[in-house]
């Protein structure tokens, strides 16, 4: 007689959907993380499954986890963000970089492109500087992080000051004109291999706070009447919303990129909402992109994607490939 399998007691050890090179495929090893960053210990407790975990609704706990992950896996010390700024989920942020590495490798016989010859522009690096920190540590790439928020940029500068290897490879630039991305920022004749961006995705402050309340409820927390939700992953106004939401933000970026077609070999952006894609594809067509890709990503239940586009002609792509093959 066949026996019905017992319901699994534990959540799966592998986090569904992450890129195979992601360092966070497996359940967090809290003993290892606490050894790397002892302050994490006070936030770790057994959850309903009997497993060690943290309270993901507690911003201090999420920050302590990030500090430990950044030391243990990326050698980044003294990472911190000012109160109220976005505290990024590290596994998902790392995924974007791994897929970008694949995008470059696909153009060079599948060979991963590592080292400081690869230059990446991170548009909106935030106070957390997360993409440059991970990308530099994992692939050795050089980064320029841009920001319109001078306070965020100052914090990014403090993180770099505590991390000499990162400081040597990452530079920061203030974009003084919030409606621009490349102009007034990229120097004449400068060419990046990649640009990347995690755009503010809500269209208004009201929408952003409704999103916060939804996340809060999903974490099983009750909100006292009249109390603003304290978001576990935080978020300062400009990190969460912009006029027209991510769709308008990315479409403006595409239009501007067409006017500086050789400043990046590949322009890319994260797209959180599938509903933003039709307008983005129309904008790419209107801009005359010579190539574009949509790269699907998943972090557990959450689906997102990267849209990548280029204005390089086939002969420019070829010249770039030959240059990379020669290295
Ligand atoms: N990269 C970080 C922060 C993303 S939030 C992360 O993934 O966690 C989006 C950021 O884009 C905000 O910090 C906002 O200030 C910045 N931003 C908005 N418009 C910008 C522009 N035109 N140029 C550069 N940064 C911009």
Key phrases:
two-stranded antiparallel sheet, 327 residues, alpha/beta, single chain
Summarize the structure.
The chain is of the alpha/beta class and 327 residues long. The protein is built from eleven helices and nine strands.
SSE order and pairing:
Layout: H1 30-36, E1 45-46, E2 52-53, H2 59-74, H3 90-107, E3 119-123, H4 130-139, E4 142-147, H5 150-161, H6 164-169, E5 170-174, E6 192-197, H7 205-218, H8 237-240, H9 245-259, E7 264-271, H10 277-287, E8 291-299, E9 302-310, H11 314-325
Parallel strand pairs: 3-4, 3-6, 4-5, 6-7
Antiparallel strand pairs: 1-2, 7-9, 8-9
Helix pairs in contact: 1-2, 3-4, 9-10
Description:
The chain is an alpha/beta fold and 327 residues long. The chain has a domain at 84-204 and 233-325: Vaccinia Virus protein VP39 (Rossmann fold, 3-Layer(aba) Sandwich). It contains eleven helices and nine strands. The protein has helices at residues 30-36, 59-74, 90-107, 130-139, 150-161, 164-169, 205-218, 237-240, 245-259, 277-287, 314-325, and strands spanning 45-46, 52-53, 119-123, 142-147, 170-174, 192-197, 264-271, 291-299, 302-310. The strands form two sheets. Strands 5-4-3-6-7-9-8 form a seven-stranded mixed beta sheet, sandwiched between helices. A two-stranded antiparallel ribbon has the order 1-2. A hairpin with a 2-residue loop joins strand 8 (291-299) and strand 9. Helix 1 crosses helix 2, helix 3 packs across helix 4 (130-139) and helix 9 runs parallel beside helix 10. The longest helix is centred in the N-terminal third of the chain and has 18 residues, at 90-107. S-adenosyl-L-homocysteine binds at residues 86, 88, 93, 123-126, 128, 130-131, 146-149, 152, 175, 178, 180-181, 198, 200, 238-239.
